[in-house]
Amino acid sequence: MDKSIEYKKTSKQRQDFKYDNKRKKNLEIQHQNQNIISQTIAELKLTNHSFILEIECNNSRHLPFLFQQAKGIGYYGVSFSDKPMDEIPLVQALKINEGHAEFINIKEGEKLNFESDFFDCCFTANTIYYWSDPLSTFKEIYRTLRLGGTFNLSFIEQKFGKDLPWTQTDFTFYTLNQIKTMYRIAGFGDLEVIQMTEEVMTKDGQHMVRPFIYISGRK
Question: Which of 95, 104, 124, 154 could make an SS bond with 55 (beta carbons 3.0 to 4.6 A apart)?
C-alpha cells in the first residue's frame, strides 16, 4: 500500500546554495532547483557509510550539505552531459565526515556503469522533465540498488509545471500516477509520496509558493 503524506512546511529559497545549469535553455528551472535538492537530500535519512547515486548531477554545490547527513558517504554522480564540474564545492565537501565522491558522464540511454546491487539509495531532483526514456533509467536504477535500497525523486507535477514561464516545448511533465506507474513497472514497491512546497523568487522579484512532490520507492 502506498503511503501519502501532506508536507505543510514551506521552504524558503536558500541564498547560499546556487545551481549551475547544464543546458542553457533550462537555466531558470535549474537556478530554482536549489530548494528541491536540499529537501530531497534531507528526506533520504542517510546512515553512515552509505553508497549513493545521483542521476543528472550537474554540479557539486549541494555536496557539502549532503555529506553533513552521515559519515563516510560514498557518492557517485551521473550526468548526461560532458560539462566539467565545479571543483571548489567538491573540495569543501570532501573535508566533511570523510566523504568520497566520483562523477561519471554518460550518454542518456546508456547502461549505468555500475555493478548490480551496489547502491543503498539513488536520488534526483527536478530533472525527469527532459529525460528521453525515463522508464529505462528507472530500470537501470533498480538494477544498481541493493535489496531494500530506495529511489527518491522530486518533481513538479504536470498540472503545476505546464504553465510555468520558463518551461520549454521539449519539457515533458508527468502526473503523479504516471510516475507511480514507472516505479511499479521498474519493480519498486512500498511507494511513499510527500506533498511539499517551496518559496521561490520569480524573474520580476516576486515571491511565489510552488508545490512539488517527493516520491520514494523501495527495491
Answer: 124
